[in-house]
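Please annotate the following for my students:
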Amino acid sequence: MDFKTSNEETKTGIYLMQEGNEEPFNIRLHLAKDILTIQEQDVICVSGEPFYSSERTVTIRRQTIGGFGLSIKGGAEHKIPVVISKISKEQKAELSGLLFIGDGILQINGINVRSYRHEEVVQVLRNAGEEVTLTVSFLKKTPAFLKLPLCEDCTCIPSDQSSGTSSPLCDSGLHLNYHPNNTDTLSCSSWPTSPGLRWEKRWVDLRLIPLLHSRLSQYIPGSDVSRKNAFQVIAVDGVCSGVIQFPTAEECLDWLQAIASNISSLTKHNVKKINRNFPVNQQIIYMGWVDEKEQDSVQDRMYSPKFLALRGSSLFKFSAPPVTTWDWTRAEKSFTVYEIMCKILKDSDLLDKRKHCFSVQTESGEDMFFSVELECELLIWEKAFQMATFLEVERIQCKTYACIMESHLMGLTIDFGMGFVCFDAASKAVLWRYKFSQLKGSSDDGKSKIKFLFQNQDSKSIEAKVIKFDGCLMLHARK
């Protein structure tokens, strides 16, 4: 069940959520521009005494037709109290505001039946007489396999889904003294009311997840194993949504993309505000969560969340988003963008089951591997890294490196306007000069040696130049 309003940033739907080893339970998601609201169903007192009680006491009478008009499931053998799974249509109107599908029966005429088995509860009800007083409480986390029907307006309509044929639990219809030829009608006055009190089943807020700097995760924490049609949202303060489960892969992806889009919009807005405090050459170009593959990973902790930021000439890696100016000085690591190389990993380059991955090779030759949740996030990162590198190269205009060619100490200048210039380090005499347009290819040995292939403008022939650098210079030359 899902619908969109005219505002594309808003979505609402009813799905399942699981926390730890508990059974999944029904929740309603509401996505707004800056917050994800997770709601659970509960029964609350809406009139009468101004207090909230999780338990209700209701007295009902056995009817000529339909008995008590209730069906129940569960019991101690299933590790839950007996639960009201169906209310017949005839009795539903009379019980409005008294009993609800999903109510757990705690006491029958004062007898505590919380730990009774299913058949034991059935016997107590059969022997309860013409009038029975039930103490009930709505079980918000009734196991999902009860398949209680849900509607957007919170009314629960009995359906065949709540019958024993579709559930592993027993379903007892307590329609005692029923005879198909009996045409007596039910008397409204025969159903007692709860004096002065009225309850309603409503969706109430369970958790609010602020989306700014929140992160999404389809994977089991620390691993490369993706959950099937499920993900969780973790707020910047660590509050977790729980694992939200969807019936289809399409719905799961749709929600992932919608939440990711809202997070991205909030991040862009936040970056604009932060950049007001930074000079032009120190502007933030990118901020976002990634998962980094651990260098010395163990099987249950292969990945850990990191926060990357491209600002000015540097790539920063944090364990949490930087909030204050002081936070920027406490990054785990930082790198100069023109001295590192980013590579988007194709399917054949992937290290494990994680998709949407990229690597960053540093000036020391170290490789760092990261993954993001969605392909669109990967494209945003790639575009941002290219922009950061371009802006820094445009700012510095040229860079000169020491190198060795044919056993002689040389200098190699890479000029944004002129191209490549190689000169003798002692005499400063220019040995060769090529424009960027003349570079037709390059290769390296992965350590310190790089080979350039330039095309001679006059003869159109290819001329090879082999230069030896240290690791960091080679990486820049390759870029």
Remarks:
- The chain has a mean pLDDT of 81.
- The longest helix spans residues 249-275.
